[in-house]
Known about the structure:
Number of strands: 20
Order of helices and strands: HHHEEEHEEEHEEEEEEHEEHEHEEHEEE
Radius of gyration: 36 Å
Strand order of the largest sheet: 1-2-3-6-5-4
Amino acid sequence: MSPYFYTINxxxxxxxxxxxYFVQRLYKGATRNMYSNNGYGKKxxxxxxxxVIFGLVAGGVFAGVTYAANxxxxxxxxxxxxxxxxxxxxxxxxxxxxxxxxxxxxxxxVSVTNVSLTQYRxxxxxxxxxxxxxxxxxxxxxxxxxxxxxxxNHVVENSNSLTVTFSDxxxxxxxxxxxxxxxxxxxxxxxxxxxDQGTLAVIKVSVMGDSNELVVGDGAIIxxxxxxxxxxxxxxxxxxxxxxxxxxxxxxxxxxxxxIQTDAAVNPGNSGGPLLNMKGEVVGIVSAKYASTGVxxxxxxxxxxxxxxxxxxxxxxxxxxxxVEDANAKGxxxxxxxxxxxxxxxxxxxxxxxxxxxxxxxxxxxxxxxxAKGDVITGFDGAKVTSMSQIKNxxxxxxxxxxxxxxxxxxxxxxxxxxxxxxxGGSN
Length: 428
């Protein structure tokens, strides 16, 4: 029997006992006056008392069963007899087993070993030392001659030699096809002729997903060469999207990127590996982890929408036979670091909504056009702008040397509106 039946309302039981006691006294008192009626009155009184006792016991049993049922179902009754509604039941499912996703995706993930050359200056002169480092990559395409892999630029920078290791343990040399310092994306390739038939039968090309479809709380999986020990799998959720994170590219410039945040564990060596959704699609390329005392579960990935655009640019440049040392070499560069100004922030500080110029790089197009720290950019190339991502998207449609009209609110003139023509420079 359920333990709830042993915890029925004791107050109600004590009330029943009191009633029984009262009936018993009534019976004894009444029977003294009933014997003279040939026992008929006594019989009637007995019948009435038995009916009362039955009603009390039946009521108690009903109350006990109702109480137990409420305990089991979680229903609460108020003094007025109304029922407090429970929270809505979610249609989401808890994903605890991702083995099928891992087994399907692991053949498209590779370990990348970079041996870079590092120059040291000592009292005895300068010398160069080879420094190995480990990262991860994702196979995204293949043609008759090459297999193409996307990874982080910082995984392959300053490379003297690159080695790719496939899921079956086979290792082959790789070369850099093209890269983007600012976006921290690089494409490398290996020759199909260097891969034996057994490995070719095992490896797979990944399926790219749409990062624009992600919502906070979606399940997330990361596969990568953590600590250089080989591929491992971690799981979590999408913690945030469009996180604006400042990073430093290989030239030392501070770059602000919109990244996906996840609490799936990210460790050294995971860089360049895939962030997967619950369909097993690549929705991001792992790029960074926020590392600080007391901070856990803050890893970041470059959205697949951005990655795909850069890959297409790199591969397009390759097919045209153009130089692809940097995918953004032909792209436009403004030369600012900015922060989004929301309506609430604008109201709080009495400044316009738009993009706050936090820094202007020396010698940049922005500096030459008179844009200064503290100004707010409100319009760019004829479009109203409220975020750095909008400015980046517009810049991606322009080339080095293009002239665009920018609308700014000047900080040194009480945020009066001004329009300037800016000749965009190159991203190098």
